[in-house]
Structure formats: C-alpha cells, structure tokens
UniProtKB/TrEMBL annotation:
<comment type="function">
    <text>Catalyzes the NADPH-dependent reduction of glutamyl-tRNA(Glu) to glutamate 1-semialdehyde (GSA).</text>
</comment>
<dbReference type="InterPro" id="IPR015895">
    <property type="entry name" value="4pyrrol_synth_GluRdtase_N"/>
</dbReference>
<dbReference type="InterPro" id="IPR036343">
    <property type="entry name" value="GluRdtase_N_sf"/>
</dbReference>
<comment type="pathway">
    <text>Porphyrin-containing compound metabolism; protoporphyrin-IX biosynthesis; 5-aminolevulinate from L-glutamyl-tRNA(Glu): step 1/2.</text>
</comment>
<dbReference type="GO" id="GO:0008883">
    <property type="term" value="F:glutamyl-tRNA reductase activity"/>
</dbReference>
<feature type="binding site">
    <location>
        <begin position="189"/>
        <end position="194"/>
    </location>
    <ligand>
        <name>NADP(+)</name>
    </ligand>
</feature>
<feature type="domain" description="Quinate/shikimate 5-dehydrogenase/glutamyl-tRNA reductase">
    <location>
        <begin position="171"/>
        <end position="306"/>
    </location>
</feature>
<dbReference type="GO" id="GO:0050661">
    <property type="term" value="F:NADP binding"/>
</dbReference>
<dbReference type="InterPro" id="IPR036453">
    <property type="entry name" value="GluRdtase_dimer_dom_sf"/>
</dbReference>
<comment type="similarity">
    <text>Belongs to the glutamyl-tRNA reductase family.</text>
</comment>
<feature type="domain" description="Tetrapyrrole biosynthesis glutamyl-tRNA reductase dimerisation">
    <location>
        <begin position="321"/>
        <end position="419"/>
    </location>
</feature>
<keyword id="KW-0521">NADP</keyword>
<dbReference type="Pfam" id="PF00745">
    <property type="entry name" value="GlutR_dimer"/>
</dbReference>
<feature type="active site" description="Nucleophile">
    <location>
        <position position="50"/>
    </location>
</feature>
<dbReference type="InterPro" id="IPR006151">
    <property type="entry name" value="Shikm_DH/Glu-tRNA_Rdtase"/>
</dbReference>
<feature type="binding site">
    <location>
        <begin position="49"/>
        <end position="52"/>
    </location>
    <ligand>
        <name>substrate</name>
    </ligand>
</feature>
<dbReference type="InterPro" id="IPR015896">
    <property type="entry name" value="4pyrrol_synth_GluRdtase_dimer"/>
</dbReference>
Length: 445
C-alpha cells in the first residue's frame, strides 16, 4: 500500500481555478464513493477548503493510482486533464506522508501555523470514514498526521502568535484587561473588519458587545451576528462613558473621536481606565487622545508592529516544527517499512527451508545406508548453506527498511525469489483507534 497526495492550493492555482475545483460538503459522501471506484485506489480522503483541494489515496500501483486521481478530478469538475495538470502537484510515497504532516501542522497554509486546517483535515478524514472509503493504511496515515499536527502546536506554540489585525486587536484587549467576560465593549463601524473583530471578541469570551454605525440597520445586522446590541451613532457619548474597550473601524474620512470630546467623557468616567484600539485607515481616533490620562490608545501601526513580531515568532516556530516533522517521518518510515520487511523475510526463510528439506530428503534416498551421525552432518551442512545464502539478503533488507526505499527493495526481493507473501501480510497490521488525532501502532525500535 503506497500513499499518494494530489491537488492544488493557493500557491499552485489562482482563485478562479480553486473555485472550480472545490467540493461541496453536502455531496462529499457520494463524491468519495465515486473516487473510490477508480482503478487501484484502496482508500481515499478528499480535503477541500477555500485555499486547497487535495486527494489523498493509498494504492498498490503508484502510477496507475495517481493517474486515476487525476482523471477523477478532471472528469468531476469538467476540466481537460492537460489544462488541470499545470496546476496540480503530485506527492508519492513518503513525500505524500511528509506533505500531509506539513498540512496538518499549518506549515503549508497561507498563514503559517493557522489553527483551522487541523480541524478541516480531521473533518475530511471523518467524512471518508462515514462514506466507508478508508482502509487500514489511510487510517494510520491520517491519525498519525493529526497527532503530528497536535504535537507541533503543543511544542512550538506556533499558533499562539496572532497575525491578523482583528485577532491582534482582541489579544491586546485581553492583555490590558485579562478576561473579557463582563467587560463593556463598543465596536465602531459595521464593515468587514468590524465583523471579524466582533467574531473574535465573542470567541474570546466577550459577553457585552455594543455596535455603533452611521447606518443603524447595518449595526443591527452585525449585533445579531455577535449576540450584541446595536446603538445609534448619535447616542455614542453615553456609551463611551460606560464601556471599558472601544475598537474602531469605521469608513469615515475624518477623525470620529477628538481630544476635546474624549476629555469631557473621561471627566464623567471619574478616572476609570479606557482602552481604545483604532484599526481604521484613515484613523478614526485623533492621536492626541492617547495623551489623555487613563486612556490607552493603539492605532493600526501599533498593531502591525505586533503582527510583524508575531510573524517572526511563527517563522522561528516553523523551523522547530520542521524538525519535529522530520523526527516523526523517521519513526513513521521505520515502522511502515518494517511491516513490509517482516513478512517478506519470513516468506524467504520458509522458502529456503522448504527447498532444503526437499533436496536433503532426495539426497538421503540416493545415498542410502548412512549412519545417524552421517545423516546429521548432511542435514547440518544443508542448514548451513541455506543460512549463509540468505544471511546477506536478510541483513541488507533490514538495513534498507530504515530508508525511504525500503518498501521498494522488499518488493524487488519478493519478485526475485518469487515469494508467496499473502496480500494481507503485505499490508500494515494496524491497531486503529477511530478517534481522529490518536493512533496506536507499533514502530520499529
């Protein structure tokens, strides 16, 4: 069983191609069954997100299996193969394993270390399970990859450094006030940035979110999305007296909050601190507002400075993540190849034993009248010849088992000696836990 990974992503294909190649969640089960019926595909998973469409499969014939996947993608989406091929990447054997490890770890994403992808991979694997198109090899392939993705995030903390404006704004609010639950929060504006900020606030535990916008109807719509409350733009001053945090992202061409206005509001607040985060371009809050006592002001440049530092932190974490992946690849490689090698060695030894026994019995019949001691010498010599003959191939095969070509040497040996290795013995003998992200298998010591 050999893994292949074929697909396209944000680097290999423009958005208009990625849109055509996406799969709708509602039809995934029947699509998976359609794919599984193609030649030489023993187990399959389809990963489809806004930035990538990938087919993972295990096959007994890499060339035919890869061609089957390409034909399926071209046929299903109505794109000519020669056109599609210019956007596809193809990973086979251990390159396919390494690719999935990097995907689940967030190292192949548009934003390094992003968290969402590991859940998307787990969902794709679960859909394949429900469609009954996986097998033992696919199970271990994906469960190991999910475990690797979790290990990378746990050990490198690569996803703990926010790199989006809206998320960083919320993180700054948490740093200044600790838990956001119970804190009064006002969002000025109801555009895309405000929407993202509102969602991040709710995810961070904010329970009291007010939304103000010049178009009250838009404020109402956003407030519903974040279980908040819309307030009219003209009534904003009374709410500025009450809230602890203001995040501003309006489309105004002029300053919305001026120093004089905020000085009056701070008098009414009687020294209660206030955090203002201005993520609008042009700015909504006059920079002098940040000089008023008890007000802390961050603007878009402050946030970008934080994001730049976080990007650097993620790049450093990515270096450590790559090291973890190589460690896991070595373990997976040794374990996987040993599963091919052991039954082959047993089959080779059994064949040698069978030939030896047949030839010894034939020789003894022709010789006749040997003493027990002489017969013992003949049998011992035959054993010695077979053991010496097989010693080097077996020793070398065990060494090759720890390399990326181990399974190929195993198949060559099977063909050279015409070994009868049962198909089930060729497959990984896996103990699979159906809980995504956990895998129990024996690795070569």
């Amino acid at each position: 069983m050999f893994p292949v990974a074929i697909g396209l992503n944000h680097r290999s294909a423009p958005v208009e191609i990625r849109e055509k190649m996406s799969f709708h969640l509602s039809r995934m089960k029947e699509v998976l069954k359609e794919l599984k019926d193609y030649p030489e595909l023993e187990g399959v998973v389809i990963l489809s997100t806004c930035n990538r469409t990938e087919v993972y499969a295990v096959t007994t014939n890499v060339e035919v299996g890869a061609q089957s996947v390409k034909k399926f993608l071209a046929s299903h989406h109505g794109i000519e193969e020669n056109v599609l091929n210019q956007y596809l990447y193809v990973h086979t054997l251990y390159d396919a394993v390494r690719h999935l490890f990097r995907v689940t770890s967030g190292l192949d994403s548009m934003v390094r270390g992003e968290t969402q992808i590991i859940g998307q991979v787990a969902q794709a694997y679960q859909q394949a399970n429900e469609a009954a198109v996986t097998n033992k090899a696919i199970n271990v392939f994906f469960q190991t990859a999910l475990a690797v993705g979790k290990r990378v995030r746990t050990e490198t903390l690569i996803d703990q450094h926010p790199v989006s404006i809206s998320y960083t704004a919320v993180e700054l609010a948490k740093q200044n006030f600790g838990e956001l639950e119970g804190k009064g929060i006002l969002i000025m504006g109801a555009g895309e940035m405000s929407t993202l900020t509102a969602k991040n606030l709710v995810a961070a535990g904010a329970s009291t979110v007010l939304v103000s916008n010049r178009s009250y109807e838009k404020a109402v719509l956003l407030a519903k999305e974040c279980s908040g409350r819309a307030v009219r733009f003209d009534d904003m001053d009374q709410y500025l007296e009450e809230v602890d945090i203001v995040i501003s992202a309006t489309a105004s061409k002029h300053f919305v909050l001026l120093p004089e206005r905020m000085q009056e509001i701070m008098k009414l607040r009687k020294g209660r601190p206030m955090l203002l985060i201005d993520i609008a371009v042009p700015r909504d809050i006059h920079p002098d507002v940040g000089e008023i006592p008890h007000i802390t002001l961050f603007d878009i440049d402050d946030l970008r400075g934080v994001i730049d530092r976080h990007h650097q932190e993620r790049e450093l974490a990515a270096v450590n993540a790559e090291k973890i992946i190589e460690e896991e690849m070595l373990l997976f490689l040794k374990w996987h190849n040993s599963l091919f090698v052991v039954p082959t060695i047993l089959a080779l030894q059994q064949k040698g034993q069978k030939i030896k026994d047949a030839q010894v019995e034939r020789a003894l019949e022709h010789l006749g009248g040997l003493t027990p001691k002489q017969e013992k010498i003949v049998r011992s010599m035959a054993n010695s010849i077979v053991n010496h003959l097989l010693h080097k191939p077996i020793t070398n095969l065990k060494e090759y088992a720890t390399t990326s070509q181990g399974h190929l040497y195993t198949e060559i040996l099977q063909n050279l000696f015409d070994l009868d290795v049962a198909e089930e013995d060729k497959r990984p003998n896996l103990m699979v836990n159906q809980n995504p992200g956990q895998v129990c298998h024996r690795r070569a010591e």
